[in-house]
Design a protein that fits this description.
Strand content: under 5%
Largest sheet: none
Order of helices and strands: HHHHH
């Protein structure tokens, strides 16, 4: 595994803990449905924001790598230009052209999953705190 891949895994592990940390912080001030809604909204926005920023950063990186491959600046890649590309240039071009799944995941699917995950984790957190408070008061 490369350092970049390890960093990605670490980011996703930290993101999975965001709902608990936000719920703990918000629950100190707001205990009702407003607090619950704030936790779900805030955590889903934070989690989606990180993934969208990563997606936009990688997209910009690919754009910067692909732009010089159009040697004559006509907006398309001729056979003569393609012949001058290195193996790494071909790799960047393959990533650039085959990015439909990454775009759909970052822009559409992940925000929906992060909203559902935030709702589930916040619900469990609220339920555990409720049961614990009932036991302490009984």
């Amino acid at each position: 595994m490369t350092t970049f891949q390890v960093l990605h895994i670490a980011v996703y592990i930290v993101l999975s803990c965001v709902p608990v940390a936000v719920a703990y912080t918000v629950r100190k001030r707001l205990t009702g449905i407003v607090g619950f809604g704030l936790v779900v909204a805030l955590t889903s926005v934070l989690m989606s924001g990180v993934v969208i920023v990563q997606w936009l950063g990688y997209d910009s990186y690919l754009e910067a790598k692909i732009a010089p491959l159009d040697r004559n600046g006509d907006g398309s890649w001729s056979d003569d230009e393609i012949a001058t590309w290195s193996e790494e240039d071909h790799k960047y071009m393959d990533s650039y052209i085959g990015d439909g799944g990454r775009n759909v995941f970052a822009a559409i699917i992940f925000p929906v999953f992060s909203l559902a995950y935030s709702f589930i984790v916040a619900s469990i957190y609220w339920l555990v705190i409720y049961i614990r408070s009932r036991r302490l008061n009984a």
